[in-house]
Design brief:
- The protein is mostly beta strands.
- It has 2 domains: about 80 residues, Chitinase A, domain 3; about 50 residues, Beta Barrel (Thrombin, subunit H), CATH 2.40.10.330.
- About 5% of the residues lie in helices and about 40% in strands.
- The strands form 2 sheets. Strands 1, 2, 3, 4 and 9 form a 5-stranded antiparallel β-sheet that branches.
- β1 and β2 form a beta hairpin.
- The radius of gyration is 19 Å and the shape is elongated.
């Protein structure tokens, strides 16, 4: 019986970028468990699982619009280093910024100016703007609990 919206499924997967480098995999871990149609995974991944039967595999290329969206230049900002309090963050660090409305956003520190006065932070998802390839295997459609 093929997977349909509302089914709870488990899948094994391997995700790669256009250059062939792997960015994520369930290898060596429990399969990923999620509900189809609940928005738990990126839309293109969910679409690829719909219609698969347990044991069936698929390879899908997901455009940015069905993954983590486009990359926005305006999501890269330069802030004064003193906004970080004592001690500068490291390049590559993921920081959490609390907005005026108390919402939380993650950003990656991408650069620190040579004069140590400014920090460049990127609020884009690390995979934004990227085409993603997934090798997916539907392991199980979990039976509903009685």
């Amino acid at each position: 019986m093929p997977a349909v919206s509302g089914d709870v499924v488990t899948v094994h997967y391997r995700g790669t970028l256009a250059d062939g480098s792997q960015f994520d995999s369930s290898e060596g871990r429990e399969p990923l468990l999620f509900t189809l149609g609940a928005g738990d995974v990126i839309p293109g991944f969910e679409t690829a699982v719909l219609g698969l039967e347990p044991g069936e595999k698929a390879t899908v290329v997901i455009p940015p619009e069905e993954a983590y969206g486009p990359r926005y230049d305006e999501a890269v900002q330069i802030v004064p280093i003193d906004a970080f309090g004592e001690g500068a963050p490291e390049v590559g660090a993921v920081i959490t910024v609390i907005a005026d409305d108390d919402s939380r956003m993650s950003a990656t520190v991408t650069a620190i100016s040579e004069d140590m006065m400014d920090v460049t932070v990127d609020f884009n998802h690390p995979l934004a703007g990227q085409e993603l390839t997934f090798e997916i295997e539907l392991v199980e459609i979990v039976p509903p609990q009685a």
